[in-house]
C-alpha cells in the first residue's frame, strides 16, 4: 500500500511517500524557520499561510522523486493534531480534497505517534516495548511504547519544552532565534562547573519536567554577571551556556533512568529536535553503556517534524483497514493515551 | 462550460456547479460547519448537473478577502480536488462575487463592505461592464468604515459591513442591501469569461487575497 503523508502541525511542511513493501520512497520538507526568525517565535497565522503555499509543490516534488503518478497513491495520512489549529486545518483540507479526487481512504494521524514510530523507519528499529524520550521545541515527554497504538504517558513538562528553554535562553543571551543550536555550539567552549544551575524536579518522585525555572535562573544569573567588557561577557556567556546545557541534559538523564527502572524496560528511544544535541547524546550513551540499555536515535531528519513519520504511522493504520470519517479536522489538543492499536477506531 | 465553484470567505458556505445552462447551488449557513459539509455539497451540485469531478473544465474559488481560516479551508479543498483531478483553477474576488450576486440590473455601481472584524471592513467599488458582469474598479482594501471612499453618482451599498458599523461611515448610503454574501453561483458567472480567455492557474497558485497583511509584529530584540 502506497501512502502519502502530509505534516503541517507547526512551522514545517513535510510530505512523504511510504510503501508497505518498498519502504520510504520519497521524503521532502520545507522549513519556515527563516520566516518566523524575524518575529522571535512561530506566528501561527503566517505558518498557516505558508503551508497553503507549499503543500502542493511538495507533493509534486515527492511524486517526481518516487517517479510515480498521483494515481499510484492508495491512501493519504495527514497530521490531525496536536498542533496549531490553523496550520493543521490547511494540511487536512488539502489532504481531504486530494483523497476525495483520487477516491482513496484518508486517516488523521497523531503527530506524537509519528514521532514515537519514527525510529521504525531506520534499518535497525527497536523492538517493543520501549521507552521514548521526546524532546523538541514543542514537547518534552517520556512515553512507554508497548506496541503500535499502545502508549502510556509517563511524564511531561509542566511548562516550557526543553527545546523552548534552549531557544529562550539563547535569545536572552543574544544568540537569535531559534538559537538552541547556537547555544549548544557556544557551550562547547564554556565551563559547565563555573556557575551552579538547578536540576528542576529531580529531587522529588515522578517523571514530569519543568524548565521555566531553569530559564529564569539563567536570566537572573546573566543580568547579575553581565559587564561592560565584551570579552569578559563572551566568556561568561559560554560558561552560562555550558552550565545550562549540562543542567538540561542531567535532568533528562535522571528522568530517563527513573523511567526505565519504573517500566523495567531496557530500551530507550530519543526523538525530537533536541535529540540532535551532541552533549545530550554523549550523556545518555555513557549512561546506556553503564546500565546496559539499548539506545536508539533516529537520524536527525526523522527526529524533527517530517512527513515520513506521518506516512509511516498512517500506513500502518490504513493497512489495518482503519479510515477517517470525521472530515476536515485539526485538534490543538489530543491526549496520546486516547489512541488505540491500528484497526480499532 | 463545466465548472465547480466554492466560496468559504463568509459565514455562508456556498457551492455551485454548472454544465452549460444547467446550474446547481447549495448553501450552508450553520457557523463552523464549512469543513464538515463541503464535500457533501460539492457532490450534490455535481450530481445535479450530471457531472463527475474529472469532467470539469476547471474549479473556481472565491479567494476573499474574508475569514482567514475559513478561506484556507475552501482553498485547501479546491487545491486538493483540482490537483487530484488534474484541473486548472480560476480565482475570483469574493467582494466582486457579492456585487455580481446581489446587484439589480438597473444600477451599475456597487460599494461592497463586508465586516472584517477589529473595527474594519473589506471594501471594494465594483462597476458593471458592457457584458453585464461586475468588475473591480480598484483593488480591495481593508480600513475603518470612516475611511471608505464612496463612489460618485448613483450606487447601491452592499454587505454586512454597513449594518455592523452602521454609524461609523462618513455618510449613510441611500440604497442598502446588507443581507448579501459571496454566492458560488456568482463566482461561476464571473469565472466563465476567465475560462474562455484562458485565464486559469495551476492549483498550487490558488491562494487567498488576504488584503489584511499586518498580522504580526517583528520583535525588537533580534
How would you characterize the overall build of this protein?
The complex is a heterodimer of chains A (345) and B (222). Chain A is α/β, with parallel strands linked by helices and 345 residues long. Chain A contains 11 helices and 10 strands. Chain B is an alpha/beta fold and 222 residues long. Chain B has 5 helices and 11 strands, in the order E-E-E-H-E-H-E-H-E-E-E-E-E-H-E-H. Chain B has helices at 34-48, 68-85, 94-102, 161-164, 184-196; strands spanning 2-7, 13-19, 22-28, 58-62, 89-92, 109-115, 121-128, 134-136, 141-143, 156-158, 176-177. In chain B, strands 6, 7, 8, 9, 10 and 11 form a 6-stranded mixed beta sheet that branches. In chain B, strands 3-2-1-4-5 form a 5-stranded mixed beta sheet, sandwiched between helices. In chain B, strand 7 (121-128) and strand 8 form a beta hairpin. Chain B starts with a strand and ends in a 26-residue tail after the last helix. The chains are: A alpha/beta (345), B alpha/beta (222). The A-B interface holds A 38-41, 43, 45-46, 48-49, 52-53, 55-57, 59-60, 70, 85-86, 89-102, 171, 174, 176-177, 327-329 and B 35-36, 38-39, 42, 53, 68-69, 72-85, 203-204, 207-208, 210, 215-219, 221-222.
